[in-house]
Design a protein that fits this description.
There is one protein chain. By secondary structure, this protein is of the alpha/beta class. The protein has one domain: HUPs (Rossmann fold). Helix content is 45%, strand content 22%. It has a 5-stranded parallel β-sheet with strand order 3-2-1-4-5, sandwiched between helices. Helix 3 (94-104) packs across helix 5.
Length: 148
């Protein structure tokens, strides 16, 4: 297991102490793996006609900048632990982008956070976890996330 991709879906609440990152650190340390941290930003949506588009673009750019800085800091924290880590901020459809990046980077293991939802949510929504699992040719590990 030389290449691990860890998908981050919540930049604001993910830290080095998060279960997802802790499990990634454990595996990367044991197997001397390279870690690729990926955060997928959904494609742009149509703006409401009554909202200032310039202001929205500025806000979106600031948010992307903050997420990029977070990912860079997170990968630096892993490198400080002697783990070969880098990060990517990629725009696209979440499941397709994770699968495409996994293929492109020759990933051996994808690590995803597993969110707990109720039966109603699960019956209505086909989540990222299920989409990746259904379509993926790579090994996938789910790490339970802490409930907020």
């Amino acid at each position: 297991m030389k290449n691990i991709l860890v998908a981050i879906d919540d930049c604001q609440n993910t830290t080095v102490a998060s279960p997802l990152i802790q499990r990634t650190i454990e595996l990367a340390s044991v197997f001397s793996s390279k870690v690729r941290i990926v955060h997928v930003v959904p494609g742009s949506r149509q703006f409401p006609f009554n909202v200032d588009k310039k202001m929205l673009r500025h806000e979106a750019a600031n948010e992307l900048h903050d997420e990029h800085e977070f990912l860079q800091q997170l990968s630096k924290s892993l490198r400080d632990l002697s783990i070969d880590a880098s990060s990517l901020l990629v725009k696209g459809a979440t499941v397709k982008t994770i699968l495409d990046e996994s293929d492109r980077l020759n990933i051996d293991l994808i690590i995803l956070g597993r969110h707990k939802h109720g039966d109603l949510y699960n019956s209505l929504i086909s989540g990222v976890e299920e989409g990746v699992l259904r379509k993926c040719a790579h090994s996938v590990m789910f790490v339970p996330t802490l409930e907020r």
